[in-house]
Amino acid sequence: MPSDQEEQDFINFQQYWLTLKRRWLLIALIIGSVFGLTGLVTFSQKPVYEANGKLLFNKQSGVSSLTGVSEQVGQLSGVTNLSNPLETEAEVIRSNTISLKTIADLQLKDAEGNLLELDAFLRLLTVKSVRGTDILQLSYRSTDAQEAAKVINSLMSAYLENNILVNRSEARAAREFLDKQLPQVEAKVAESELALRMFKEKYQVVSLGEEAKEGVKGLNDLSNQMTRLQAQLADARSRSGALQKQLALTTKQAVALSTLSQSNAVQQVLTEYRKVQDQLAVERSRYTDEHPIIVNLLEKEQALRQHLERRVSQTVGIDESVEEQDLQVGQLQQTLTTDLVQIEVQRLGLENQVGVLMKAFVLYQARMRSLPRLEQTQLRLERQLQVARTSYEQMLKRLQDVQVVENQNVGNARVISEALLPKKPISPRIALNLALGGFLGIFAALGIALLLESVDKSVKTAEEAKRLLNYPLLGTIPVFDQKARLANGEKSTELPVLNNPYSSVNAAFEMLQINLGFTLSDKELKVIVVSSSVMGEGKSFIAANLAVATAQMGKRVLLIDADMRRPHQHEVWQIPNMMGLSNVLVGQSEFAKTTKEVVVNLDLLTAGTIPPNPVVLLDSQRMASLIAQAKEDYDYIIIDTPPMSMLADAMIVSNLADGMLLVARPGVVNSAAAKATKDLLEHSRAGVLGMVVNGVESDHYRHNYYDYYYSNSGEKHSRNKDKMKSGLSKITGLRLL
């Protein structure tokens, strides 16, 4: 079994096909118009020729890398990563200067004989890169093949001349730049040399590397010397302390005593002073203190003492008094005192040496600490000097090179393919244009047809009507060609069931009548209201032929035309409408006398005189009584009512009936009217038996079957067909199948 998706696709395809069938005339007209217009334009065009030439580009020219400032002079390279050098050169070729020069040299004219405008020239010119190569292809279109070739060759020649001039101008600009920069770079070299020399003079730098090595060695030597001298100094200090402790003298005192002991002047005065003391001691044993000799000796002693003190002060340079016993010491003490003095002298000497070495060590150490900084400064100055010298040498060399290149005629491009005279035109392409015209015509026609179809809100298929109304589909009535029937000599064109019993329309109404018999299960179906959503759907046609089909089944049928606004049943049956339903309802006529038998078992009650307000009559007790009376006399009552989209007549009559048969005709009813009818029926809760779709395209197999049946039956019974039909109708009202 096919899936739902496949069935849906098939339905959509069928809908598209039906759309094309409905609008085939418009589609054919659009396709023919577009195709014809394309052919007219194609054959009216002048042939256009296209000449092609090719330029090969080198990445680098002779001007490249001539200065240290820019390595891209004369080189094919982009400013950004997104730029394409070949596209840049293509824009140069299309530039105003080269294009106007080509136009002027060749005196290119437009159709009016004026000099060709720049924009028009550029529209005819195409410059594009050959994919995967360094080649630009130039193309020019013209109605003159010779002119197209000349334009390309002239354009390439003008571009090459311009390219050479640009490269030479770049070389000249590079030389002028180098001429200006060279003295500045030379001054920079001299400035760097002077800075390095002043640095060496200021910090007394000869060779920082050698100085660092010697400095490390000197620091080690000074450290060793200081260690040795500090050991000797410690020994001298210990010996001096021992002697000072033994002599009970300080270093100063020991020096002073040693000096006094060795001073002859002090010793002479001291000897005389002691003699006077000895003599005074002897004389005191003999004389009193007041004795002149004692007094004289005392004065002499006092004078010598003062003299001794002056001699001591002069000798040792101190004002302090020195004990007499300290002025002259013994040999041992003298020796120890001398040793103490010598040791002190040695200690002082060692301290001085250690101090001097310490100062030298500190100076060396400070110098060594400053060496890395000095070395860094020296390296920076030397580097600046080296850079300046290198720049100067390179700039000097490049100045010589650019002077040579400036005089050369070197470019980035060369011609690898000159434009030849084109032999065949590129436009118009007749086959392609006609094919495109046909394709565009088909595409436009289908698009317009589908657009009109989407704008058209009418219901187009029975499936769409069934989906919108959502009522049981009791039957589908095929299209009935009235004009064809009239051309064949048939009488009434709206009663195919009566006049053409072997048609597919007859079978459709027969199926409809049978399906109606199954709509109600709880009661007998007798009164049927036939209505539609809008006018023109064929409700009167359905009601009349359904009445005929039911009557042919042997049932007594009453057909009532309740459309008292635009009655149509009297036209279908071609009878007068002088008296009818409206006259019966107002009491102007009797029901039994007003009905007319149109065929066997079928009576017709026309609408009658059109009243001013049909709703009042239809909603009256007389109408209900008429329906009740008709139920007793007839098996079926079929009531033709107005459309429901604008009028309430059908809804009123449906209250008196067993059910309503809703007629829908694709192409006439639209979706809005169908939805409004659906809402109205649901709101009123009217009993809808189902729907019948009128005017449907005949099914292929059903159509062939009935055509085959009709043709064979007609040939076999052509002589007695009318006789049998009339005889059977009089006896039973049945149709022989």
Strand and helix layout:
Blueprint: H1 4-22, H2 24-44, E1 49-57, H3 85-93, H4 96-106, H5 118-124, E2 125-129, E3 135-142, H6 145-202, H7 208-247, H8 251-261, H9 264-284, H10 292-316, H11 331-405, E4 413-417, H12 430-455, H13 462-469, E5 473-478, H14 482-487, H15 496-499, H16 504-516, E6 527-532, H17 539-552, E7 557-561, H18 569-573, H19 581-585, H20 591-594, E8 596-599, E9 602-605, H21 614-618, H22 621-633, E10 636-640, H23 649-654, E11 659-664, H24 671-684, E12 688-696, H25 700-716, H26 721-731
Parallel strand pairs: 5-12, 6-10, 6-11, 7-9, 7-10, 11-12
Antiparallel strand pairs: 1-3, 1-4, 2-3, 8-9
Helix pairs in contact: 2-12, 4-6, 6-11, 7-11, 8-11, 9-10, 16-17
Mean pLDDT: 77
Approximate strand percentage: 5-15%
Shape from CA axes? elongated
Strands of the biggest beta sheet: in what spatial order? 5-12-11-6-10-7-9-8
Biggest sheet character: 8 strands, mixed
- The count of helical stretches stands at 26
- What gyration radius follows from the Cα positions, in whole Å? 71 Å
> What structural category arises from helix and sheet content?
alpha/beta
What distance separates the N and C termini? 35 Å
Number of strands: 12
Helix percent reads 55-70%
Uncertain residue segments: 7-11, 62-73, 699-737
